[in-house]
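User: Structure with zinc ion, tokens only please.
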Amino acid sequence: MLTAVSAYFSARWPPQSRSGLEQQQLRLWGRLQSRFALSPALASYAKKPLAELPVISTAEFRDRFSDCTTQGLDAAVAADAALAAETDGREILPGGLSAGFSTGTGGGTRGLFVASPVERAIYGGRLAGKLFGPLELAGLTRIGVCLRAPNRLYEKRRVRFFGLADGDRDTAIAAWDPQVLIAPPQVLLELADAGRPLPALRRLFYGAETLNAAERRFITTRLGRRPDPIYQATEGFLGAPCEIGTLHLNEDALIVERAPLGGDRFQPIVTDLLRRTQLVVRLKLDDILRPKTCACGSPLMAVHPVEGRVQDIWRWGEQVVFPGDVEAAVATHIAPGHRWIAIGHSGGIAFACEQDADAPRLAGALAAFGRKLSREPYDRGLDFPKRRHVRWRP
Ligand SMILES: [Zn+2]
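Assistant:
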């Protein structure tokens, strides 16, 4: 309990200057390094500065699951525990460790995370600290969280989970009437589209997928609350919105280096300064980020919401098109909530949409990129569990 409370306060009130923040990072980095001896992947780097450590990709991080833990935990054993947590919530790992899967984007191995009871308390405290002020938190009795596969270990008295694929999902959410709802954009769009009233709603957060400007406005109008981004992945809790709604990276508990992608876009290389069971050190994520300025005055780096994955960037020789460019071109032409996908490939652009009337609009918007267009059938399975408007087909 004390751990969660202190995590809440330190997340709520991080250092107020860049130099204070960097001092805090340095202090936490020293403590993290003292754990390296326990991890086969990092044992030989215990005395090295951060810049001399290898940068690891998400694929390597998943492949070397066991080496990145400080308990020699076997990946298959952890995966079994993660599956159990999604079904009946049995804890079968030693030391009270719990495991879970990331949502994943279809294909490839799903990300697997493990956390100790202390880390779970820190996570919960930090999440609450980044999202809610003390008075607001005290008044919250119903927080709804929609996930692909709810991990029962995180279910609490005030927190209820809703499965993404549950047939009665929207009815169940509406019946519970949450004060806070955290859900992927596709769920928020469906709730907004159906015009389901959520009278108690005070705050709305989205994660896991992108939301374009037109969709954000639509949800704000229909549900009466602005959806604010949360940046959360298997790799940790990475960013949260300030009161203005701008996403700030959680640099009070992370070091985020930037791998340039062209223009001001970058891939974050993340070092988690608090995790002790599964060490996340110089992990290069597949997300595309862009810095922005924010008037709130926080020293934590402000970024636009994640615009997509590097694997989805379109490349034809010198011509590079980012997912955000495609969203911007299409957003005003397709009604929010209507389903569409645009797939770049070496021969041009394939697109799919659920409603025939959207096809000429989509084709018109995509013509801006000067490539040969073709239409393909749309299948809802393509957007489950994660919706991805923009993709690249290798
Ligand atoms: Zn801000």
